[in-house]
Amino acid sequence: MGAAVHAEEVLEAFDEISYLKGGAIVRMLQNFIGEENFKKGLKWNRNKQGIKQIMTTWTSQSGYPVVKFERNYENRTAEITQKPFSLELDDEEESIKVLDERLWSVPVMYTDGSELDWSTKTDFWLTSKSDVVKNLPNESTWIIANVQQVGYYRANYDADNWNLILEQLLENHTKIHVINRAQILNDILNLARSDEVDYALALNMTKYLFFETEYLPWQAAFTAFKYLDIMLAKTPGHDEFKASAIIKVES
User: Fold this and answer.
1) For this UniProt entry, which segments traverse the membrane (predicted)?
2) I want to staple 107 with a disulfide (CB 3.0 to 4.6 A). Which of 78, 122, 141, 207 is the partner?
3) Which residues, at least 6 apart from 242, have a Cβ–Cβ distance to it below 8 Å?
4) CA distance 139 to 179
5) Three-state SS for 157?
């Protein structure tokens, strides 16, 4: 069943959206309906979901999700899950988080190291808590989701896939789109703050910055370093952290 999208419907979808969240969601909307449809309100056809149904999941509830790819390297599949993303929860908030049933209609797009494709066409929609994607590359090849960070969500992976990404960044970081290099740092350092990944893994990801010359990844790193500098102040590890950060900047 097709759905015609007009300018009024686009505006209606954002009646209750907050200003800060709105910018990111507007970009996501523009990507999946197309720039011309977005600007002119021309007809846009979807086989399964209308724009209002999709956008209601973003405009009628707070927050945004983290989407995780948990790969099975033997059968070349991955379980894709979504859950609300939160930073630094206390025990009471953690118990609430377990019961949190918020779901979003998430446009999932991904690429891999064997067939680089940095176009932002949606591969599939994640509308439930979990789904399975098949025909992934072999165990020596990374995948990266949220291509060019057009989706309003964080991307997480199993530790093996994170390490494959790190290997690529250290070997030749330019094979990964600069926006995704910034996204990788932003995501993993914030996922570490929320105890979704180990901080050791997150900080290892910054090692490739010795070779980085673009602004966006450095901006993502500086934001995280500022938080760590505050949190580590007056601790035994603060001097070591500052020295490491300075070396990266001066290199």
Assistant:
1) none
2) 122
3) 229
4) 25
5) strand
Verdict on whether the full-model pTM lies above 0.90: no
Q: What is the token pair recorded at 210? A: 């010795």
Per-residue pLDDT at 24: 76
Angle of helix 215-232 relative to helix 238-250, nearest 10 degrees, comes to 160
Using pLDDT thresholds of 50, 70 and 90, give the confidence band for residue 210: very high
| H-only helix segments in the chain | 7-12, 19-33, 35-40, 51-59, 91-98, 159-172, 178-193, 199-205, 215-232, 238-250
Q: How far apart are CA 38 and CA 35, in angstroms?
A: 5
Single-letter amino acid code for the residue at 30: Q
Burial of 151 (0-12, 13-18, 19+ CB in 10 A): buried
Q: Which residues contact 24 (CB under 8 A, 6 or more apart)?
A: 64, 152
Segment 108-150, tens digit of pLDDT: 999 999 999 999 889 999 999 999 999 999 999 999 999 999 9
Question: Pick from 141, 133, 125, 155: which is nearest to 58 by CA?
Answer: 125
**Helix, strand, coil: what percent of the chain each, to 5?**
50, 15, 35
Q: Is the dihedral of CA 206, 211, 217, 219 positive or negative?
A: positive
What's the average model confidence in pLDDT over 1-14?
Answer: 46
